[in-house]
Structure formats: structure tokens, C-alpha cells
């Protein structure tokens, strides 16, 4: 079954001067992949991965270009035009993404970037964007486990911390005390489920929980020292920004880690940095 707004692996069924047709099944029939997108040496019967969407004439079409987001995903996109029907954002394909006025929390302006969620409009079947995220998140039961690694997108900064979309499906929160590094709206990164509250709200951590995060960082410190000739110009006195730049971790976890490595006699700590003990 063809999935609009997603990558599909389809069979080449016809060759023409202006491209090839791939099999869209009984619902969509043959779908054109224009010649400029056809990979070299493609033949009848080959299976090819293509993105399916509607072109500027509202005809279904295939492309091997990669959009900035698929249906069901978040992306921070630039607004290139506003019209009486809504705003149009560049999402990496020839036909721009429409965000209707009814789907805008605030009125969009040209040359500004906005975090949007892509979905299929039930009335038209077309791919559109929205900034009204509550319509799409927390609509299925959250079956995460504490400690599970997930993908998050930072959606909003609040008084408590950073509100995030977990796996493009559920809301979660990184408390200010858990935040480190450069977090901003639209940033995507990995995180870990820290706690699932009785009311269903989910707390997130940017690091593995418990001893696991120290063990992981210990290995990373040793590997980095080996790559750098046995010396790194960082200590427990270094700034959080310096530590995050090298190890992508908090200063507290870094201090605990090098303390453990020092006790194990795997490193020595001097005023200018840390040294690997061979």
C-alpha cells in the first residue's frame, strides 16, 4: 500500500522519454518519476526507493529527492511566501509546503523559520503543515520504559525547562536542572526516559540513567585520550561548555567519571589536563 508523504520501495513498470513509471497499486496506478530524478542504469522490473507526494498540479508524483521531513515528523522550515490561503514553507521539494491559516498558532511571516508538524489532510489527502501540535501528540498510549533511549525534538522552552516531542508521538519534558549544552526549538537529538508519572507525563534525561551513563562516559574518555595521544586539556575545573563540546555530557557526570577513572589508576589528573596511564 502506497504511503503518501513517505518513502516507498516500488517496482519500475514502464519507461518513457520523460522518465519512468513505478507501480502505485490499484489505488494510484502508475506513478511518474520524472527523468531528472531517475538513477542511472535503472531498468524495467527494478525496485526503487522514492518519496511520494503531490506536485504543483496536484498530481501524484515520485521523486528520489529527500525532503526535510516526512508525514508524521517535525521540522523547522523557512517561510518563503504568504498568501490568502496560508503560508508556504520550503521543505526541500519543488512544491512548497502549505501551512493553512487555520493551522497556525501565530501568523507566519516571510523569511522566518517555524517548527511544523507534517500530516495528511483528511479532506484533501494533501500533505500540509501545522503548528497546533496538541492535535497530533499523545493520541496513542505511551509504552516507554524507564531508561529507554528515544528520539526527541525540542518544541518549546517553558518556565520548567524544554517541552519536547518524543519519537514524534508524545510529549515529554527536560527540566532546567537536566538541561545542558545548546538546546533550542527545532533541535533533534537522543534522550532517555527518566520517569513516567502517574498522570502520564514523561520526564526526560539527556544522559543514560544511573551507573550506565558513567560507564559509557568512562569508555568515551579513554577512547578520546587514546585518539589524542594520551592527553586532554580538560579537568574538573573546566567550564561546562568546554566539557560539553568534547564529551556531550554534563559537568557533574564528567567529574564523577574522571574521579572513578583516577581511582582505578587509568588516568592521572594534572593542573593542565588529564593524562592516560598506559
TrEMBL record:
It comes from the Bacteria. Residues 3-65, 145-207 form the S1 motif domain. Pfam families: S1_2 (PF13509), WHD_CvfB (PF17783). Signal peptide: none annotated. One of its GO terms (molecular function) is nucleic acid binding. InterPro entries: CvfB_fam (IPR014464), CvfB_S1_st (IPR039566), CvfB_WH (IPR040764), NA-bd_OB-fold (IPR012340), S1_domain (IPR003029), WH-like_DNA-bd_sf (IPR036388). Transmembrane segments: none annotated. SMART domains: S1. Belongs to the CvfB family. This is S1 motif domain-containing protein. It comes from Enterovibrio norvegicus DSM 15893. The lineage of its organism: Bacteria, Pseudomonadati, Pseudomonadota, Gammaproteobacteria, Vibrionales.
Amino acid at each position: 500500500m502506497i504511503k503518501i508523504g513517505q518513502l516507498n520501495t516500488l517496482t519500475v513498470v514502464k519507461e518513457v522519454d520523460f522518465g519512468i513509471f513505478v507501480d502505485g497499486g490499484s489505488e494510484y496506478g502508475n506513478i511518474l518519476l520524472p527523468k531528472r530524478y531517475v538513477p542511472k542504469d535503472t531498468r524495467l522490473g527494478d525496485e526503487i526507493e522514492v518519496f511520494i507526494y503531490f506536485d504543483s498540479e496536484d498530481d501524484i508524483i515520485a521523486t528520489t529527492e529527500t525532503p526535510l521531513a516526512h508525514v508524521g515528523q517535525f521540522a523547522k522550515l523557512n517561510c518563503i511566501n504568504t498568501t490568502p490561503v496560508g503560508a508556504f514553507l520550503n521543505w526541500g521539494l519543488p512544491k512548497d509546503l502549505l501551512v493553512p491559516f487555520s493551522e497556525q498558532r501565530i501568523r507566519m511571516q516571510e523569511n522566518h523559520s517555524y517548527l511544523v508538524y507534517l500530516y495528511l489532510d483528511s479532506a484533501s489527502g494533501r500533505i500540509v503543515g501545522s503548528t497546533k501540535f496538541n492535535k497530533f501528540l499523545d493520541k496513542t498510549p505511551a509504552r516507554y520504559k524507564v531508561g529507554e533511549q528515544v528520539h526527541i525534538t525540542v518544541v518549546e522552552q517553558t518556565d520548567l525547562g524544554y517541552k519536547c516531542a518524543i519519537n514524534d508521538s508524545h510529549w515529554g519534558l527536560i527540566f532546567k536542572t537536566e538541561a545542558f549544552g545548546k538546546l533550542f526549538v527545532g533541535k533533534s537529538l537522543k534522550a532517555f526516559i527518566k520517569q513516567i508519572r502517574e498522570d502520564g507525563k514523561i520526564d526526560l534525561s539527556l544522559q543514560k540513567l544511573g551507573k550506565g551513563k558513567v560507564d559509557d562516559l568512562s569508555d568515551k574518555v579513554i577512547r578520546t585520550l587514546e585518539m589524542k595521544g594520551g592527553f586532554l586539556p580538560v579537568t574538573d575545573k573546566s567550564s561546562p561548555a568546554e566539557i560539553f563540546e568534547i564529551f556531550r555530557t554534563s559537568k557533574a557526570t564528567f567529574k564523577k567519571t574522571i574521579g572513578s577513572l583516577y581511582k582505578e589508576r587509568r588516568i592521572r589528573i594534572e593542573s593542565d589536563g588529564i593524562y592516560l596511564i598506559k
